[in-house]
Each structure stands twice: as C-alpha cells, then as structure tokens.
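User: Can you fold this complex?
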Amino acid sequence: MRDAQQWAIRQTDGLLDIALDNMPHGLCMFSADKRLILCNLSYANMYSLGEGLTVAGTPLQSILDYRSQLGNGPLHTATYFDVVGLAAQKGGRASQDVALQDGRVVRITHSSMADGRYVATHEDISESVRNAEILVRHKETLEATVALRTKEVEEQARELERLLQQERNINELQRQFVALASHEFRTPLAIIDGAAQRLLRAKGEVSSQFVRDKAEQIRSSVVRIVDLMESILAAGRMDNGTIEIRYDRCALRAMLESCCQREATISKSHRITIDLEDLPDHIDADKFALEQVFSNLLSNATKYAPRHPDVSVAGRQEGDHVVIVVRDHGVGIDAEDVPKIFQRYFRARTSTGIPGTGLGLYLVKKIVDLHGGSIEIDSQKGKGTSLIIKLPISQKNSQISTDRTNVA
Amino acid sequence: MTTILCIDDEAEIRGLIVEELTEAGFKTLEAANGREGLELMVAKWPDIVICDITMPEMDGHQLLAEIQINYPELANVPFIFLTAMTDKQNVVTGLRAGAADYLTKPIDFEILLAKIEGCVARIESDVRNDRAF
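Assistant: Here's the predicted assembly.
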C-alpha cells in the first residue's frame, strides 16, 4: 500500500516537474530566510539565470544581484520586496507589477505559507502593458484632438454668430432703407400727382401762370426723383466696385457757387453765405462726383436745420490741398452717432422726422476717398454741424481711380 | 364753414392740398410741423386735421399722442393721417392712436375730398344727436 502510494507520488513528482517546466509563467519557491527552494525553467529563462543560480539554497539577493548585473533586475528594488512583505503580512496572496531594467514588466504574485516559505509566479505582461500605454496615448491624442476641434467649432460658432448679427444689423438697416426710400420717392410723386390733378380739376378759367406753376412743380419733383435714383444707383455702383472717377480740370469755385445757388432756390428759407475767394480756380477732380458731394452737404445743411437759416460755405487753399467747410446751425449729431455717420443707411437719432435715406454721407465719403481726400465732421447736438472736406489740388498718379474696396 | 388744418413739412404738398380744399369750399389752415399744428389747433379749433407723419420738431404720431394725453378737448377733432409712410406698422400705430383715417401719398384728391365729406357728415350727425338730448 505504502509503496504503491509513494510510487504514485514519485510518478506525480516527475509529471509535476514536466508540468512546471512547461508552464509559460516563471515559478519559484523560497524559504523564510529567502533562499531558493525550487524554480521552474521559465523562471530561469525569464531572467537568464545560469545553472549555478537555480540550485536550492541560492539566496534571493544573489539572484537579484546577478540580474542587476545582467540588466534585467527590478527597476526599483524596494517595490520588489513590498509585494513579498505584503503577502507575508496578509498571510495569503499579493500581486504587484514590477518594472525591470530592460523595459519588461513582470507581474509577480506571491503566496505565503504559514511557515514563512513562499511561492511566486512571474508573468511577463510587457506586451499588455505596452498595449495599455499605447491605448492611453491614443486616448490622450484623441482627447486632445477632440478638445482642439471643439475649440475650433466653438470659435466658428462664435464667428458665425457675429456674422449673423452683422447680417441682421445690415438687414435691419436695409429694411429701414426700403421704408425710407419708399417715402422719399412717394413725396415728389405726390407733388407730381397733386399738381397734375390740380391741372385737371381746376374749376373755371385757368391762368397761364397757374399752368406754369404746376408744370414747374412737376419738373422740380422729377429732378428730385432723378437725384434720389442717382444716389441709390451710385451707392449700388460703390458696392460692386464699378464706380469710376474721371479726373478733369474742375472749376471748383464756379461749381460750388452753382451748388449753393441751386440749394438756395430749393430751400428759400435759408441764407447761404459763401467765402470762396481763397480757393484756386481749378483742381483735378471728377466734376459730377464732386457736384454730388456738395449738393448733398448743402441739402443736409438746410434739411437738418429747419429753424436755423444760416448756412456757410468757406473754402481755402492749404499747401497742395483745398479745404472746404460746409457749416450749419441745425439739430447736430449725438457724439455717439458721429463715428457711424458715414455708414451706409445709417441715420443719426437727431434726424427723426426729417426725411432721408442714409445714403448721402456714405456716398460723400466714398467719393472724397476716391479723390484721395479726407472728410471730417465736427458736430454738436443742438448746435449744428460742420463738414470739413480736404481734396488734393492735383492728381498725379492715376487718371482713373476705381473703387475696388468691396470687390472680392 | 368747415375749417381744415393741413399739417405737412413739404410746402408744395401742403399748397396743393390747400388749393384743392379751398376750391371745394373749405376754409384752411396750414402748419409745417406737429408743434405749429398743435399751436393752431389750440388757437383756432379746426373741424378736421389732415396730418403728415415725417416732419421735424414734432412728427404726426407725436402730435396725435400729445392731443390724446394733454388736450382731451381736441381729441374728438377728426384726425386724418396723409403720409408717404406706407408700411403696416405706421398704419397700425396711427389708427390705434385714434386717427379717423390713414391715407397714403400720392393721394387722389377725389378720395381725399370724399373722406373729408364723410367726416363732415359724421360731425353734423353728432351735433344733431347732441341737440336731441
């Protein structure tokens, strides 16, 4: 019986040796005083231990010293012993992943026994650790990319919102413009229609003076509509960059005088004083464009000063420029509105109740800019407004100046 | 004789309307903005007011509001807007504020006269009803 049992154990011993040597993990057993009791082939191979170091009784420290020399010892010796201590303390099993000098990572699992001996398995988990690290790096890269894209999208959204707001503002201004333009067209049309109806409906004998008056009203209203149309068309040309400035010898003083005369006939209640003696006779300029500039400024000067009849136009030469100042004592402009006054469709708060389209000063500034000149505004609410226009006397560089600012 | 106050900052339009109304047998008063119009209403008590909207000093909406709030004795005077502002918002604002009518420019004088005659007929029937009580 006994023999049979021992045989069976021996048989099993032999099989166990084979099994241990063929398991993929390293396995070792140490005594309480940390001397090797046994180890399998995988353990020896893992750390390239020579035969001298796998015999029973070899101190663990010798194995570790040897491994350090070979360059496959634990990176931090202290952590290596932690796991042993922990396992002993718990009286059971403890695991720790230990980094080696050669870059591998080994998961060591210790099982302590009551008498202080212990068994440990060593599993090379380098690959899965590497994979996990790669995964972490991927995740970090991904997170960084997502964060970057999110930031970009947020920025785009903000930009979009800003553009949308801008678009809304432009739409609102355009909506106002359409209402104002409609009003501006309807007023002279009402005069034309009214005058024509009076011609048709007048009772009794009609004098030739009556007919002439009505015809004149009709004609001056037509001029008003044409001017309005021109300014709207000019604004359109400004926008698509097709406006052209043709420089010619422009008799500036004579042109200003005729603009003032024309305004005086339109607004009979205003007194326009002119002081243009110091102006040179001619400058290089587009006569028609400048006429538009000054008839606009003069019309503003009377329109926005319904109760203040004095308007002055003064001109002088300053070096190689001319400076023309058109001044009124009318409603003026709020300081807040001044910076926006040359914007298309913009109308100052003080213009309430006074008809207009918000195109005039926009065009004026564009034309002056195209001439290489400048425009300044000096205004005080309730006190009046001065517009100061500075234009070069001669245009040396180019014959034709084209507005390309809005052309993409 | 029925007196009509015509308020418009465009002297030519005002002149043409006044000419038409005078020929139709009405007495007319003229004002160039809401402020002047209000002064004339207080001073002369016109029977009907024809008023533009876009005017300096005081516009048509402001004048009508001013009358409703501060001059209740003038609030019953028929107030007709005659304006180049054709947008719905202005029409609604004007009529809500108590305007008798809202007419747009250009205006057919026959229609303008018809509206005025309608107002005159209403004023007269109101007067008859007052007497009946």
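Residues 166 and 172 of chain A are 10 Å apart (CA to CA). Confidence is low (pLDDT under 50) at residues 404-408 of chain A.
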